[in-house]
Amino acid sequence: MTAAVPARPRVLVLRALGLGDLLAGVPALRALRRAFPGHELVLAAPAALAAVVAASGAVDTLLPAAAPGRAVPRSLAWRGPPPEVAVDLHGNGPPSHRLLSDLRPGRLLAFAHPGTPEVSGPRWLAEEHERERWCRLLRAYGIPADATDLALPAPEDASPAPGAVVLHPGAGSPARCWPAGRYAAVARRLLERGRPVAVTGGPGEEELVAQVAVPGARTFPGGLDVGELSALVAGAAAVVSGDTGVAHLAVAHATRSVTLFGPVAPALWGPPPSARHTALWHPGPPGDPHGRQPDPRLLRIRPEDVLGALERPEGPGRKTGRNQRR
């Protein structure tokens, strides 16, 4: 009788958040892939992000998991033996720690918190860039991680609006939404200069897209799926958005970007230093990223600032052949 081949040991990673969060976690996911080459790497994340999860090249299995806002899922549909390793890339508090601990993993890699004294991980630093935060967590456990390892390959699908300047007026909260009228002013000026414009919005943002959609602009209201959005961004001449997932997608595809920051400093969520990526921000005390009104610092950014950033030279090594695979 032939002995059964044992199943591969599994690493479970929790990051059940949005598109920008996933992209900020790609360097850590790739570090885990290198550290556990013989394991099945399972990522607990929203099913809608499957295309980007696959493009990361780091994940074997997507375990659908999500909760409203930035909450921790109540449970995970985990089957089979406990994971050999569980990694909390979701947060730093007891809810995410306990969700993973309840699966009885062989090891739990997580930040320390006084509410879960049994977790002896490194200290959480509030003023730390999101990409670096999760790489530092892994390094504390002896896993080398490079926060700059964030590029995605070009999508197989062609862009639905190649060469356009993509304007994405939506964001996760009103505090991070630059006024629609200012996006419309940018769109008009770009079209006057002969530059094609595409306006995108997520589910439920049809009215917002309509407020920005000046005559001559292509519109994609109601939300492209992540694969279509990735193709649009990868094939764009530039992307203008607030601090949201589309900005991270532009960085991942090396597409020129202008990102508008208000309540949260670019030092925490902004693009890496590059002539290709511009973060517009007026320094000041931290605001409420979940506020119900646009942040005052965000409102200090003018359409002229955005247009000026788009006109600045990209510098040496700028991207060419926007849908070429890298």
UniProtKB/TrEMBL annotation:
Q: What is this protein called?
A: Glycosyltransferase family 9 protein
Keywords assigned? Glycosyltransferase, Transferase
UniProt-listed Pfam families: Glyco_transf_9
GO BP annotations listed: lipopolysaccharide core region biosynthetic process
Report residue spans for region: Disordered.
275-326
Return the Gene3D superfamilies for the record: Glycogen Phosphorylase B
Bias (Basic and acidic residues) = 289-317
Q: Which domain of life is it from?
A: Bacteria
Q: Which GO terms describe its cellular component?
A: cytosol
State a single Gene Ontology molecular function.
ADP-heptose-lipopolysaccharide heptosyltransferase activity
Keyword Hydrolase in the entry? The reply is no
